[in-house]
Amino acid sequence: MSTTDLTSLEPGQTATIVKLRAEVGLHQRLHALGFRPGQQVLMLRRAWLNGPLHVRLGTTEVMLRCQEAKGVYTAKAEQ
Amino acid sequence: MKQIAVLGMPNTGKSTLFNRLTGFNRLTGANAKIGNWPGITVELMMAHLQLGEERAELVDLPGIYDLRGFSEDESVVRRFLEHTPLHLVLIILNMTQIDRQLSLALQVKNLHLPGVLLLNMADEAAKFGVDVDVKVIAEHLGMPVIPISAKYGQGFETAYRTISNALKQQEEPRLVNAIEKCLVPEQQLADAMSSLVRDAVHIKARVKENWTTRLDRILLHPVFGLPIFFGIMFLLFQGVYALGTPLQDKLGNLLDWFRSVALEPLLGGLPSFLKGFLLDGIYNGVGTVASFVPVIFLFFLFMAIVEDSGYLSRSAFLMDALMARLGLDGRSFVMSLMGFGCNVPAIMGTRVMRSPGLRMLTMLVIPFSLCSARLNVFLFMITALFTPRTAPVVLFSLYLFSFVAAILTAALFKGRFPNKEPFVLELPPYRFPTIKHMIVSSWCQAKKFLLWSRRFIILGVVAIWALNNLPPNVPPASPQTLSGMIGQLTQPVLAPLGINPQLAVALIFGFVAKEIVLGGLAVIYGKAEGSDLMGAIAHQIDWVQAYSFMLFTLLYVPCLSTVAVLKSESKSWKFALLSVAWSVGLAWVASFIFYQGARALGF
Ligand SMILES: Nc1nc2c(ncn2[C@@H]2O[C@H](COP(=O)(O)OP(=O)(O)OP(=O)(O)O)[C@@H](O)[C@H]2O)c(=O)[nH]1
């Protein structure tokens, strides 16, 4: 298992969140939306031109920009 | 009277619940009002509620994620709770997402406020395989827990009964003194939540494939997503226009008919000056506003369908990459798009943005969206001065200018309104809108529009009437009237754009509302609207002047209503004035370059 951030996931891949690093307001927002250590996250798709990411956490689907996704550290599950 | 507050995370169906609890009271406005609360600057919606023999006041709080949060809404809720003694807090959560939303209920428990927890969207939770042991949660929280569906009404009888009972038991209201002190640190809260979720929530094998994932594969397709989106939006505006304009005409005819059979005979005895004021000034002013209701209503109806289905947040996903480069985000695009129907609701829609910079920049861009009122003027002028073959090209070029002006504005001002707002947005599953809900919400919106536009449009129409008829002893709308004199005064500025005194007066009228431009021209040229007026205009000006006039009309302030919302939404006259100055300046420069350029090229 190697630790990377959310932006490195390919569509269809699942990973486990290891930690969040973001300024306190964003941290809280991400946390509230379900980005928590231990939570599984599935990359659904990436928008064109390096646009936002579309991910699923449990029953919640969220879009976020790469900028924000860089603060979400994940460990890829072995496939 | 007892006090109830409704508290919940964003998008959990709070408004839907509020509407269902208070019935159509909100629609008729008999029972609901917007109140001011101690310690809070924003206005909250409230309504009265009859629960058995108990009468209560229900306050709708903004949706929040966390009572310890840093956003504006979160501090509003904190201040509200610290200043308003409550008999009951209704907590509403999305049952499907209970595994992450329970934290809010746990926080209310920590505050020792009497609460009832409603787990909304029970219908969806069942489909997603989310199974909740309500008893375990109720025991842990020490408050009743009821699964409901605010949209379809399931569970409401139990909810009513439970709320009434809870109210009956709570004689004295409770006030929280220091919220921060009652709340536990984030980690402790997260642990409490996960252990409760482990005990009480069972999510069956994760849903891999459903309507939403299948639709998303098409609608968010990397290549076809955007074309599909533009196609849908195009159809939507066509629909509003195709259905709304005939209704608008019919309503207009009805108002004219009422005027000629009832009002004119009735007011026949009055002096003609007073009669003119009442009929041409006030009645026509009211009529102008009223005849716009069908279009506005339809516009809101279609927009509500797109929004409620969940597609609007998808369009933000599709467009965000481009908008980010302009200092905006996906939501700004959605709002600008709404602006092509009418700028006013679009500007009000920017409320969802938290960052002031982003909001201001979006509000600065929206007025350049070519709204339906401007489209009316353009269609008329183009038909009068261009051949049927060139007409579509001319119209298309105006749409192009509309986009260019918006992009230019964002690019120029993004430095002044820096936006560091992180863009993280929930994408809800696709949902079928219910007809009743659509009609109620669009009617509420249309009513809001009527309420405040009334003031401005009527005032504007009356002012124009006065300018055209004063002083009283000269022919109406002649060069000797006030409006004629004003037209002359504008010439040093507007003559270089090819805009003559008559057109100038129409432009000034257009400041109030673009709908008035045509009526204004009709009064000034002393003709009825329609082909007569077209002939008169075509006789007086050539196509270069006409195009310059249209460019100016496109770019300068859309209408007084827009300025009014810009002011009320930004809470700053300075910002409203900046928007006015920038758009008028841009209009002047663009028309000047076009007109002088075309003349220099020998046209
Ligand atoms: N399936 C289902 N959908 C619901 C239910 N209640 C609300 N919705 C939908 O959920 C969406 C959000 O509802 P709103 O009432 O606008 O939610 P809100 O909490 O007021 O949202 P904000 O004011 O934006 O924070 C709408 O599309 C509703 O139609 C429900 O019980 N079941």
Description of the molecule:
The complex is a heterodimer of chains A (79) and B (603). Chain A is of the alpha+beta class and 79 residues long. In chain A, 16% of the residues lie in helices and 41% in strands. Chain A has a single domain (4-76), classed as Ferrous iron transport protein A (FeoA) (SH3 type barrels, Roll). Chain A starts with a strand and ends with a strand. The mean pLDDT of chain A is 88. In chain B, the strands form 2 sheets. In chain B, strands 2-3-4-1-5-6-8 form a 7-stranded mixed β-sheet, sandwiched between helices. In chain B, strands 7-9 form a two-stranded antiparallel ribbon. The radius of gyration of chain B is 28 Å and the shape is elongated. Chain A binds chain B through residues 22, 24-26, 28-34, 36, 44-45, 47-52, 54, 57-65, 67-68, and chain B through 9, 65-66, 68-71, 96-97, 99-100, 103, 128, 130, 186, 190, 203, 206-207, 212-213, 216, 220, 222, 313, 316-318, 320-322, 324, 330, 422-429. β5 of chain A pairs antiparallel with β10 (424-426) of chain B. The site of guanosine-5'-triphosphate has 18 residues of chain B, from α1 and α5.
List its salient traits.
heterodimer; A: 79 residues; SH3 type barrels; 6-stranded antiparallel beta sheet; 2 helices; globular; B: 603 residues; alpha/beta; Rossmann fold; 2 domains; elongated
Please sum up the structure shown.
The complex is a heterodimer of chains A (79) and B (603). Chain A has 79 residues and is of the alpha+beta class.
What is this structure's SSE topology?
The complex is a heterodimer of chains A (79) and B (603).
Chain A: E1 3-5, E2 14-20, H1 24-32, E3 40-46, E4 53-57, E5 60-64, H2 66-69, E6 72-76
Antiparallel strand pairs in A: 1-6, 2-3, 2-6, 3-4, 4-5
Chain B: E1 2-8, H1 14-22, H2 25-28, E2 32-35, E3 44-51, E4 54-60, H3 72-83, E5 88-94, H4 98-110, E6 115-120, H5 122-127, E7 130-132, H6 134-141, E8 145-147, H7 156-169, H8 179-182, H9 186-200, E9 201-203, H10 211-219, H11 225-266, H12 272-291, H13 293-309, H14 311-324, H15 330-339, H16 343-349, H17 356-365, H18 372-385, H19 391-413, E10 424-426, H20 435-469, H21 482-489, H22 491-494, H23 501-512, H24 515-524, H25 531-540, H26 543-555, H27 560-570, H28 573-600
Parallel strand pairs in B: 1-4, 1-5, 5-6, 6-8
Antiparallel strand pairs in B: 2-3, 3-4, 7-9
Bound molecules: guanosine-5'-triphosphate.
Guanosine-5'-triphosphate binds next to helix 1 and helix 5 of chain B.
